[in-house]
Amino acid sequence: MSVKLKRQNKIKEMLNTKVVTSQEFLVNLLKAEGVEVTQATLSRDFAELGVIRSFINGGVRYIINSTESGKQIEKLIGFEIISIEHNESLIVIRSLAGRAQGVAHYIDRLNKPEILGTVGGDDTVLIIPSSSLEIPNIIKMIKEIMNAQSS
Known about the structure:
By secondary structure, the chain is of the alpha+beta class. 50% of the residues lie in helices and 23% in strands.
């Protein structure tokens, strides 16, 4: 796991378990955990993670905006998808090597009624539609995810 990913995971953990009222406070919390980070790097991490300032109980608190972080994840997933193929009953997505399980997990978490489930291998995701009639809708949805990387 990269240093950046470890740092961002620690940031998410702290934002979900502590009341973080300032970036300076978070920098000190991270330092206490052995994670050195500059203010500029923390600001970039906030942008990538979708962290926002929220006004709660008369004070400011940093939280992860689920809408924004979902958009960031969608951009990553869109980048990992290479192609989509289908027949009369199933859809197959080709992904970057080693990323099919992450793509399958993301699609499962969308909780779309059109999708019964997914199976993720190394670079291939099998999507099982609820009906063969849903295949065009699912393909359209996957293409929208693929296009999210360029927005």
